[in-house]
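Below is just one:
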Amino acid sequence: MLFTPDPAVAAAASGPSAPLLSLRNIEKAHRAGSTTTYVLRRITLDVAPGDFVTIMGPSGAGKSTLLSIIGMLDAEFTGEYHFRGHPVHALAHEKRRALAREHIGFVFQQYHLLDELTVAENLSVPLDYRGVGKSERAARVADVLDRFNMVGKKDLYPRQLSGGQQQLVGIARAVIGEPSLILADEPTGNLHSAQAREIMELFARLNAAGTTIIQVTHSDENARYGNRTINLKDGWMDA
């Protein structure tokens, strides 16, 4: 099998399990003088290990903001957020950032690869942040290159790759640290339909092997790969 199942997910399948993450009455607002504009209102959500959740809604509904809060990139919210038992809403910045680095992988619409680094060097970046030793970094990069059939592209730069290939590198970079959760923000938005299907089928395989995934998308076709859809409108959730 291409991907190794997560033992925590396998254990969850045989009995009750605590949620991977829990949001309780999450709100996000912008204030200008006496005016308050809400981006998110009273979001309450549990995501179990092994879920594949889709967040949908019109532009401006708060989808990307919710993903940023879940990804611990945005701490300016009210309410409670627990991740793997940690009270994210109460953590100091450094502890929150360390928790995210250890457990969360990100896939972006714009790829966010580093242009001056090769494919192999881009894959190594998350491991550098975690302080993984040089020999282990090299071994993990070699393994991921092999698993994603990218060995022949390891010395290429992002500008030498197609959009689909760049997104494949982005996903490989997201999973190289074996995260508990992958967050994907419009991951196929810049790809043509065949490339988009390839990327979504890869997400499906990762999820089947135990990785929890939350994606933001406008695509009904992409949403069908998940097991659950959350709809947002004007910051409110209609699950």
In short: The first strand starts at residue 21 and ends at 32. Residues 3 and 117 are 26 Å apart (CA to CA).
